[in-house]
């Protein structure tokens, strides 16, 4: 993991350099604030790591890596407005702190900044990475739209859900890795394998999120266990349960979800009990492992030194063994 | 003017081709709606015309022209949220029709689409036009922020105001012309002259807007005469009046602006009378003519056939002689 930690520190350092205090400050202060709020910087670090895997120079990849991080934070600014979210990483969201107008416009500028950073890449690479970046950006927006649609939709299939998390979460991870690979000047085959590694890992990561929300260790999870159930959030667990439940079990499930008489704790306990009867945890873990194994299989197919690929496998494993 | 009309029709035709009905429809229907609402398509037509002036092929410039039009409409989608605007070109705004979340996200996708269209340009040109496009996009956002700041600011200078309208309105017109010039493969000098032609013309156009709002022919203007005064909008006219008014005149002006006792018509009449005492119309026209003449002088400096430049001068004249 050392190499990732190294790249994360590089990203932090370089981000500081681009955070100038420009005018009008109403526009640029929220950008600085949002980029200084932290975040794990996983995507840009993986871009650098992927470039390194194929023998690329760090200096050739750094601007594209920063572009990914700025783009990701732009999506958070706009998502927080749409989700009416007051907190992000324990701090006020830009939306909460300055209002939606500022969050819209600062977000727009961050989006332009991400393209500006990307455009600093080698022109010969830009013709490949710019279209990939753009396609990914559209997909992330589509994922957000599907996620919003699901809130009011009666019937969401497992396939719909998997597609949504792929678009909203996985493709940006995948594109980060592929952009690194392209800058690292590897074969199209390798670039596609590392994209698929990221895409499958991203979906597995999100499924793990769904599982941890209910089955995580309360001491280590750091959030209210069962928060998704309380909010009637359409997670993999709930959608799978709705797909499998029949007869009385189905009635009980729908009653527990819609009843206003049930207190939060009782609702979580009741729904968890129904999930257990349907073996939902195991089914979700099986699905997650399918994606995880597919990720690893694509990693194995990459033509690169095994010892250099090890850090990617270690990273993937750490995502699957996390407790929060 | 025929050549501009021709290019406008080309833009309309090509826009229809890119308006596919994709999924999720909640995201793509508003995009289609906003691009079909019309608009004068002046910016993309001028881009095509500029490319043509320097001997470029239409097919080389069409994607950049569409990029400018899609970008411009993206800014309208987001501006309408920020300005709480119910109507655009006589129809419901996307914001009004579908809500702010849809307007934010559809706008974001339109922004990506504009970059996608631009990226279809010749890679050798893209390295020049993408940075110009990005810089301009940031400037347009800065202009919108200054405009919002001015609403609550006590002291706005004429210079601040001119800078704001330059950023919010003029630079996109200027960049459209320069991008056309770059694709048309002309000298940097010519490209800069046509940029300055557009920038100065854009500012003159906005000053004309301010003048028409109060001094336009009510029969031809199509909007309520004096609407800016009723809304206490900080236009060139008002800022100039506030700069020049002293003593009793100053008191009368501030009273008319802040009094809630005055009915709209009376307020417009009173402020117009004060403006007349200060000779504001003439001063605004002088300022506008400075920018207009500067635009024409840059046009004259462009090394291109005089007869081909005539259409730009005719267009500039038509903007200055309009009545609405």
Topology record:
The structure is a homodimer of 324-residue chains.
Chain A: H1 2-18, H2 25-36, H3 42-53, H4 58-82, E1 87-88, E2 91-92, H5 94-98, H6 100-118, H7 123-152, H8 158-183, H9 188-215, H10 218-221, H11 227-230, H12 236-244, H13 247-258, H14 264-277, H15 280-301, H16 306-320
Antiparallel strand pairs in A: 1-2
Helix pairs in contact in A: 1-3, 2-6, 3-4, 3-8, 4-6, 4-8, 7-8, 8-9, 9-15, 12-15, 13-14, 15-16
Describe this structure in words.
Two copies of one chain form a homodimer. By secondary structure, chain A is mostly helical. In chain A, 78% of the residues lie in helices and 1% in strands. The first copy, chain A, has 16 helices and two strands. The first copy, chain A, has helices at residues 2-18, 25-36, 42-53, 58-82, 94-98, 100-118, 123-152, 158-183, 188-215, 218-221, 227-230, 236-244, 247-258, 264-277, 280-301, 306-320; strands at 87-88, 91-92. Chain A has a two-stranded antiparallel ribbon with strand order 1-2. In chain A, strand 1 (87-88) and strand 2 form a beta hairpin. Chain A is globular and about 60 Å long. Chain A starts with a helix and ends with a helix. Chains A and B meet through helix 4, helix 6 and helix 7 of A and helix 4, helix 6 and helix 7 of B.
């Amino acid at each position: 993991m050392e190499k990732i930690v190294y790249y994360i520190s590089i990203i932090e350092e370089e981000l500081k350099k681009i955070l100038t205090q420009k005018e009008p400050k109403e526009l640029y202060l929220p950008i600085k604030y949002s980029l200084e709020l932290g975040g794990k910087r996983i995507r840009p670090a993986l871009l650098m790591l992927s470039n390194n895997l194929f023998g690329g120079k760090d200096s050739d990849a750094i601007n594209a890596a920063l572009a990914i991080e700025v783009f990701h934070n732009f999506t958070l600014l706009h998502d927080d407005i749409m989700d009416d979210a007051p907190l992000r990483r324990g701090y006020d969201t830009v939306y909460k702190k300055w209002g939606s107008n500022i969050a819209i416009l600062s977000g727009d500028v961050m989006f332009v900044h991400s393209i500006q950073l990307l455009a600093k890449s080698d022109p010969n690479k830009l013709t490949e990475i710019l279209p990939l970046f753009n396609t990914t950006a559209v997909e992330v927006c589509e994922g957000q739209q599907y996620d919003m649609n699901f809130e009011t939709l009666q019937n969401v299939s497992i396939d719909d859900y998997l597609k949504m998390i792929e678009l909203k979460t996985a493709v940006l991870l995948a594109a980060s890795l592929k952009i690194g690979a392209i800058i690292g000047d590897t074969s199209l085959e390798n670039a596609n394998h590392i994209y698929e590694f990221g895409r499958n890992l991203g979906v597995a990561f999100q499924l793990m999120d769904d599982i941890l929300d209910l089955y995580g260790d309360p001491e280590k999870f750091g959030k209210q266990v069962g928060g998704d159930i309380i909010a009637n959030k359409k997670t993999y667990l709930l959608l799978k349960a709705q797909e499998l439940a029949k007869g009385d079990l189905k009635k009980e499930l729908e009653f527990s979800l819609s009843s206003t008489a049930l207190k939060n704790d009782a609702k979580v306990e009741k729904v968890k009990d129904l999930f257990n009867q349907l073996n939902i945890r195991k089914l979700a873990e099986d699905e997650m492992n399918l994606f995880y194994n597919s990720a690893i299989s694509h990693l194995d197919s990459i033509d690169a030194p095994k010892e250099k690929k090890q850090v990617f496998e270690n990273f993937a494993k750490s995502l699957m063994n996390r407790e929060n």
